Structure formats: C-alpha cells, structure tokens
C-alpha cells in the first residue's frame, strides 16, 4: 500500500520533532541525504539542473503506470537531505496528487526557518520543478 503524501509528510514531521536541537535535526537531514541513491551520470545534465540553487541540484523524473518517480542529487550535504525528503514525499504519486499536495512538512519541521535564504530559494525551485513535471505528465495524458 502506497502511503499518501500527507502520511509521508507526517512521518517526516514526527522524525524531526524527536529532536529539540537544530544540530541534531541537521544531522538527521544529512543522514537522509546519505540514503539517497546516487543519480546516474546520464541524468546529471544541464536540463536536469535546478535553477536558483546555490549548490548544484539535479532532478530527474520518470513516468510509469500513471505515477511519477523522482530521483535527485546535490553536491551539498544539507541540500541533498532536502532532495531526499522531497523525492520521498512526492515519488510514486500521480501528477494530480503532486499538483494538489500542500507541502506543509517544510514549515512544521522548522526547516524553512532554519535554512539560509539561498537554500530556501533552491527549495522553492525544486518544488516548482517537481510540479512542472507533474503538470507536463498530466497534460500529456499518458
């Protein structure tokens, strides 16, 4: 059974709320990034590079059986953790579910307040790109 986007977000919020100290939360974020499988070199292209990120972030999407599966990678450890969270929450869902999702875990974990403005811009760009993929796949009607 595939968990809903909100169930996945609630799991992340629970994981982060175990810690009071932001150094521990950063460690958790880095651990999440370390669980991310390396992105195949063939996807590390200019077209998969996210604009607006201070560090380099690649995002690749595949559409299979009505669902979108995301893969990503970054050359910065904190950002890689953010990529891991986003791909875990949105991968395996339909384009409509992704378009309808309110990504509240970013605020409820305190992540938004504890990342630098440039990382915050990058986060916004990643979400925007994931929604663009969802929009494109929905429009293609596959």
Structure commentary:
- This protein has helices spanning 5-17, 22-34, 77-90, 95-100, 105-108, 111-114, 117-140; strands at residues 57-64, 67-74.
- By secondary structure, it is mainly α.
- A hairpin with a 2-residue loop joins β1 (57-64) and β2 (67-74).
- α3 (77-90) runs parallel beside α7.
- The mean pLDDT is 92.
| Average pLDDT over all residues | 92
Q: Based on helices, strands and strand pairing, what is the structural class?
A: mainly alpha
Number of helical runs? Answer: 7
Largest beta sheet: strand ordering: 1-2
* First-residue to last-residue Cα separation: 23 Å
Strand content: 5-15%
- Quick one: CATH class? Alpha Beta
Largest sheet: 2 strands, antiparallel
The rough form would be described as globular
Q: State the helicity in percent bands.
A: 40-55%
Q: Kindly provide the radius of gyration, computed on alpha-carbon positions and rounded to a whole number of angstroms.
A: 14 Å
- The CATH architecture classification is Alpha-Beta Complex
Number of domains: 1
Blueprint of the fold:
Layout lengths: L4 H13 L4 H13 L22 E8 L2 E8 L2 H14 L4 H6 L4 H4 L2 H4 L2 H24 L2
Antiparallel strand pairs: 1-2
Helix pairs in contact: 1-3, 2-3, 3-7
Supply the key terms:
globular; Sufe protein. Chain: A; mainly alpha; 142 residues
In short:
With 142 residues, this protein is mainly α.
């Amino acid at each position: 059974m595939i968990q809903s986007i909100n169930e996945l977000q609630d799991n992340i919020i629970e994981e982060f709320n175990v810690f009071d100290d932001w150094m521990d939360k950063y460690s958790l974020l880095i651990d999440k990034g370390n669980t991310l499988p390396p992105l195949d070199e063939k996807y590390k292209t200019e077209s998969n590079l996210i604009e607006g990120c201070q560090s380099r972030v690649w995002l690749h999407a595949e559409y299979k059986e009505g669902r979108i599966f995301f893969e990503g990678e970054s050359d910065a450890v904190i950002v890689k953790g953010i990529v891991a969270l986003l791909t875990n929450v949105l991968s395996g869902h339909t384009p409509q579910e992704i378009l309808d999702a309110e990504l509240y875990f970013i605020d409820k974990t305190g992540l938004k307040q504890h990342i630098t403005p440039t990382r915050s811009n990058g986060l916004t760009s990643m979400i925007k790109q994931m929604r663009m993929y969802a929009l494109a796949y929905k429009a293609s009607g596959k």
